[in-house]
Each structure stands twice: as structure tokens, then as C-alpha cells.
Design brief:
By secondary structure, the chain is of the alpha/beta class. The chain is built from 13 helices and 12 strands.
């Protein structure tokens, strides 16, 4: 079925499920807007993840997906979309697009869903050798080839920038003061958890000591994360001498994003907030252990990774079968000093 530019008036993009992956799809969405400037572009995403795209100027609408197959299909049908771009790899994403009678459906032929797609793209041979953002950019690049026989997007430099309105920033500041933050102190945000991998967590006792070092240096220290990460935040608090402000499990994703946007420094494991901080231009330090920084590092001049990889890294395991040496090799002193470096470097860039 041949697709022509004038066939595409309304586009729905099925965003990745995880917050970090959703941020890494932002460059593809930006290029999609350039490619189809007159199209109405909707991003369909899981509730929570959808907050990543709030206020984005490169899309027209954000659609939090309703739970249940038939409810979500009804949403898609009401959208009267001409094209579905499936950044999510799941079979269910393609099945919903078919059931919603979307004429053109483009995505990777993962999860045995190729028969459901009008254009099934092969998984790139470079999938585990390039940054994850190129995986999503490649889908838009293929659309460009199909519509215009052009390859500009294939060579595009990813642009991750996300913005938060002044109103949302003011709400974040008000929340911090309500929880006890002192308004005249710098803000350090710490994300000590990781929902989908315990192996990605730097030890809680070291996060506790880092919190004490930052607090002792005159900073407000705030812990963030989802409700599923409450256990590790509680562990950090139990070991810290100075109580940090705990907002873990107490904010929606959109509120967490607003908090990160007003932070002076963010220290986090390799998880969603790392990519949010980078996209916001917040000075960000990301602790890497078992995962591959080549594919998931925060691509921003405001972000820096810290790692001391042993021979077994990156193993990509969710639980370490030995002694977690990729994480225990990182001292509190080294992380503390790196956090100060990324914060000061950003101050120099801002005033320079």
C-alpha cells in the first residue's frame, strides 16, 4: 500500500512504556514535526509516562492510554488517525492500531507482529551499538524515505530538549517549601532507586552518606522516585544522619519532572530521571554499573556519567549474582566530587 504525504493528516505515535525510553524518543518526535509540519500529531502513552510530553511544542496532543484493550482501541478510533508510528515494540501496540482501523502502521517487526504492520522494519544491526534515541529516529527516517525519498533524518543529531513552564516551576518551588526546604539554599535531588533492576542501584548506605555530605554543604536534599522505590528511600533515610526531604512515591511524573527542572544538581542511577534531568538542562550525574552507557547515557552537555566497570560489566543483569563490584567500586567521595563538578560546570556555562 503506497503512502503519499497528502494521505497523512493525523498521526498517532505510540510512545515507549518507560519514562527514560520516552525521553529518548523525543528527538524522533522533533524530527517528525519537521517532516510533517501540517499534520496533527498525537502521542499515546501510558499514564505517568505521558507526563513527559506535557507542554511539548513539537506535538499537538498527549493521549494517556486507557486501561483495557477495547477502551484504548475506542480512543484510537475516535482520533481518526491516518498513520500509527509504533515506537513501542509490543504486539499489543500493533493489535490496537489494527483494531482501530488505522490505515498505515509502521514499526519494527518485533514480538511477532509483522503481519499487523503495513510497513514492518527490521531491527537495526546496530541496535546494541548506538544510543537508543537512534532506534526511534530510524522509524521516522524510514517514513521520510517512503514519503520523500530523502535521507536527511538518518544523519540528524538528536535533540532532546524539554521545557517546563514557569507556572509548573513555581508549583515545584512551593511544594519544596511546604515540605521544609529552605528557599535560600541550593537544591540537590537524589534518585536512589530503580524500578526494573536492583543491580542498577548504588548501595543505600552510600546514598545516605552522599545525602549527609550534600546537606552538610548547605544544600536542600530531596529524594524522589516512584512508590515502588519507597523501600530504598526508607533505607537511605534510616542510614542518614540528616533527614532528607522524602518525595518518593508522593508526586506524579509531571510533578517529579518539575522538581528536577528547578534542581541545582541531580544524582541518580541509570533510570528515567537521568534522562529527564539531561533533557531539562539540569546538572546531572548518573551512576552506571551493570548497564551499557553506550546505548543509554544521557546525551546532554549538562550530564555526566560515573562508573568503574569491572571485567563483568556491562552484564545487563537485573540482580548481581556475585558481589555487585561495579557499584561498590564507586566511593562516596568520588560521587560527591563529581556532583560538585557538574553543578559548577553548569554555573560556568550559564554565566560565561
Amino acid at each position: 500500500m503506497k503512502m503519499r504525504p497528502y494521505d497523512i493528516g493525523r498521526v498517532v505515535v505510540r510512545a515507549p512504556t518507560w519514562v527514560g525510553d520516552a525521553v529518548m524518543s523525543v528527538p524522533a518526535l522533533r524530527e517528525l514535526r519537521v517532516l510533517l509540519p501540517a499534520a496533527h500529531i498525537t502521542v499515546a502513552a501510558q499514564p505517568g509516562t505521558a507526563d513527559v510530553f506535557l507542554g511539548a511544542d513539537f506535538i499537538d496532543h498527549v493521549m494517556p492510554i486507557e486501561s483495557g484493550f477495547f477502551a484504548s482501541v475506542g480512543q484510537l478510533r475516535r482520533g481518526k488517525f491516518d498513520l500509527a508510528l509504533l515506537f513501542q515494540n509490543a504486539f499489543s501496540a500493533a493489535a490496537r492500531a489494527v483494531a482501530a482501523r488505522i490505515r498505515f502502521r509502521i514499526g519494527y517487526h518485533s514480538d511477532r507482529r509483522a503481519p499487523l504492520l503495513t510497513t514492518a522494519l527490521p531491527i537495526p544491526a546496530w541496535k546494541n551499538e548506538r544510543h537508543e534515541s537512534f532506534y526511534y529516529l530510524n522509524i521516522v527516517a524510514e517514513l521520510e524515505r517512503m514519503l520523500f525519498r530523502s535521507t536527511r533524518i538518518a544523519n540528524a543529531q538528536p535533540q532532546f530538549e524539554l521545557a517546563v513552564s514557569e507556572d509548573r516551576k513555581n508549583q515545584a518551588q512551593a511544594l519544596l517549601e511546604q515540605k521544609g526546604a529552605l528557599p535560600d539554599r541550593p537544591l540537590a535531588i537524589i534518585c536512589p532507586g530503580s524500578v526494573n533492576s536492583r543491580a542498577k542501584r548504588w548501595p543505600a548506605e552510600r546514598y545516605a552518606e552522599l545525602c549527609d555530605r550534600l546537606s552538610g554543604g548547605g544544600m536542600n536534599v530531596v529524594l524522589i522516585g516512584s512508590a515502588a522505590e519507597m523501600d530504598v528511600s526508607n533505607d537511605v533515610c534510616a542510614r542518614a544522619k540528616h533527614d532528607p526531604i522524602v518525595l518518593t512515591g508522593k508526586t506524579a511524573v509531571g510533578e517529579m519532572i518539575s522538581l528536577i527542572s528547578v534542581a541545582d544538581v541531580l544524582v541518580t542511577n541509570d533510570t528515567g530521571p537521568a534522562h529527564i534531568g539531561a533533557a531539562m538542562g539540569t546538572p546531572t550525574l548518573v551512576i552506571f554499573g551493570p548497564t551499557n552507557p553506550l546505548t543509554t547515557f544521557p546525551m546532554s552537555p549538562h550530564a555526566q556519567i560515573i562508573r568503574e566497570p569491572p571485567d563483568c560489566a556491562p552484564c545487563m543483569l537485573r540482580d548481581c549474582p556475585i558481589d555487585h563490584r561495579c557499584m561498590t567500586a564507586l566511593s562516596v567521595d568520588s560521587v560527591f566530587k563529581k556532583a560538585l563538578v557538574v553543578m559548577r560546570r553548569d554555573q560556568v556555562q550559564t554565566t560565561g
